[in-house]
């Protein structure tokens, strides 16, 4: 008798700098998980992020811990150290290769905001990216969620290679959270409570020399 093949696990992969992680990230992951019936979403904080090589980024360990704090209460969310341990600039293709070798039977869905999607698809090797995962682009206030400029390339790909998903609009960015924290303005309700407390405990984003002020 044949065993019935178990359906492949569906894993979302959400890469990001997460400096800090905020509710825009969490809502995007939750919406996509529901829409595609994902078994799990793995958040993968970047190593030295490739688009941000010249910018100051908080230590990987702080970004990792904030991501753990923010996702701990959701049984379907987890966090991977893969990118922060690679110790070099993160490319999506490396993240996906690593996720695939860690979960060889899973079907991967790479979740990304409208802004980041355009970047990834502009700079990296398409063929390999689409062999590794399906791409889900989520709407983000202030950025256009359209694939018109990708049309020419998308023609050659299966229809489900890139899906655009409208998610509840949260006009939150990590840059704005950092700016607020630096100016002593509140980040409450933009990031999970535990992350507010972690930022304050570790004096993240406070200009050097004013930590105790
Ligand atoms: P920064 O301002 O430092 O660039 P960010 O808010 O863009 O930070 P990232 O860590 O760069 O956060 O983003 C990780 C992923 O989450 C990206 O794919 C990004 O497009 C997506 N994303 C970030 N904020 C939102 C949001 N408010 N709504 C939807 N997607 C988002
Ligand atoms: Mg960004």
TrEMBL record:
Question: Can you cite a GO biological process for this protein?
Answer: NAD+ biosynthetic process
The record places domain Cytidyltransferase-like at 13-180
Involved pathway(s): Cofactor biosynthesis; NAD(+) biosynthesis; deamido-NAD(+) from nicotinate D-ribonucleotide: step 1/1
Domain of life, per UniProt, equals Bacteria
Q: Which GO terms describe its molecular function?
A: ATP binding; nicotinate-nucleotide adenylyltransferase activity
CDD domains cross-referenced by the UniProt entry: NMNAT
EC number(s) of the enzyme? 2.7.7.18
- NAD among keywords: yes
Q: Which SUPFAM superfamilies match?
A: Nucleotidylyl transferase (SSF52374)
Which Gene3D superfamilies does this one have?
HUPs (3.40.50.620)
**One Pfam family hit:** CTP_transf_like
Q: Per UniProt, which keywords does this protein have?
A: ATP-binding, NAD, Nucleotide-binding, Nucleotidyltransferase, Pyridine nucleotide biosynthesis, Transferase
| Reaction catalyzed | nicotinate beta-D-ribonucleotide + ATP + H(+) = deamido-NAD(+) + diphosphate
Classification via InterPro entries: Cyt_trans-like, NadD/NMNAT, Rossmann-like_a/b/a_fold
According to its UniProt entry, what is the function of this protein? Catalyzes the reversible adenylation of nicotinate mononucleotide (NaMN) to nicotinic acid adenine dinucleotide (NaAD).
Q: Which PANTHER family match?
A: NICOTINATE-NUCLEOTIDE ADENYLYLTRANSFERASE-RELATED (PTHR39321), PHOSPHOPANTETHEINE ADENYLYLTRANSFERASE (PTHR39321:SF3)
Q: Which family does it belong to?
A: Belongs to the NadD family.
Please report the name of this protein according to its UniProt entry: Probable nicotinate-nucleotide adenylyltransferase
Protein's organism: Nocardia mangyaensis
Question: What gene codes for this chain?
Answer: nadD
């Amino acid at each position: 008798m044949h065993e019935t093949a178990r359906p492949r696990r569906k894993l979302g992969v959400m890469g990001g700098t997460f400096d800090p992680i905020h509710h825009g990230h969490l809502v995007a992951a939750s919406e996509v998980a529901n829409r595609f019936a994902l078994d799990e979403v793995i958040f993968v904080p970047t190593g030295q992020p490739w688009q941000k090589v010249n910018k100051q980024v908080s230590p990987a360990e702080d970004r990792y811990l904030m991501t753990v704090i923010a996702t701990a209460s959701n049984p379907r969310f987890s966090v991977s150290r893969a990118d922060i341990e690679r110790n070099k600039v993160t490319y999506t293709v490396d993240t996906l290769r690593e996720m695939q070798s860690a979960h060889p039977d899973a079907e991967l869905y790479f979740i990304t905001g409208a802004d980041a999607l355009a970047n990834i698809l502009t700079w990296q090797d398409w063929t390999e990216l689409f062999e590794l995962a399906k791409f889900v682009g989520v709407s983000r206030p202030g950025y256009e969620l359209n694939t018109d400029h990708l049309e020419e390339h998308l023609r050659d790909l299966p229809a489900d290679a890139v899906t655009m998903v409208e998610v509840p609009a949260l006009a939150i960015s990590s840059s704005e959270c950092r700016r607020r924290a630096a100016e002593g303005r509140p980040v409450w309700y933009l990031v999970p409570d535990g992350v507010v407390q972690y930022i304050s405990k570790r004096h993240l984003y406070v200009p050097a020399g004013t930590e105790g002020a």
